[in-house]
Task: structure prediction
Amino acid sequence: MNRTKGIIFDLDGVIVDTAKFHYLAWRKMANDLGFDITLEQNEKLKGVSRVNSLQQILGWGNKTVTETEFEELMSSKNDDYLARIAHMDDDDLLPGVKKSLDYLTQNNVPFALGSASKNARPILKGLKIEQRFKAIVDGNDVSKAKPDPEVFLIAAEKLGIPPQECVVFEDSVAGIEAANAAGMVSVGIGDKEILKEADYNFADFTEIDDKFLEQIVRK
Result:
């Protein structure tokens, strides 16, 4: 295969479903503050940084906190989240993901992670796929959240591949906007009506076959 493309994966909702754990941890925090958040509201937090997520949640609950309390809330939420994901393993990979990673690995197509999560590395390690990524860019490596393309541009740089020769797999509107802003090919994973700005759309990786992967990475 003559390769021209590099692949960049988002993490939550693409490789693994940690959104449910984020929701449970954020909801517990909100409940402790005296209000609730819905699954619909949680959808709006996909691809959003921890700081911006907490700001949005506090706004929903009409709560004002001090800077110190804000930091404490972020820390306690993250501790709760980490406790929930501590027992994840490769069985938690979303359906079809392993097959796609196997195809890319076997055909020497480099791939990177581009995620807002600051816990990406321990998650990938638990899933037993950390070493398969040529580059990992997470929330610890960026200063701008999606839809800013920074995370994907850094990933492309680490892959050594021009942005316009990269393909991004994303499940959030902010992530698709970031990929498009970076001049990359965007593949939406999820509801195509929500991710309508993506170049391609699939409900999940079970709909993605080797023929499609070959199509997007070859000359």
Summary: The longest helix spans residues 67-85.
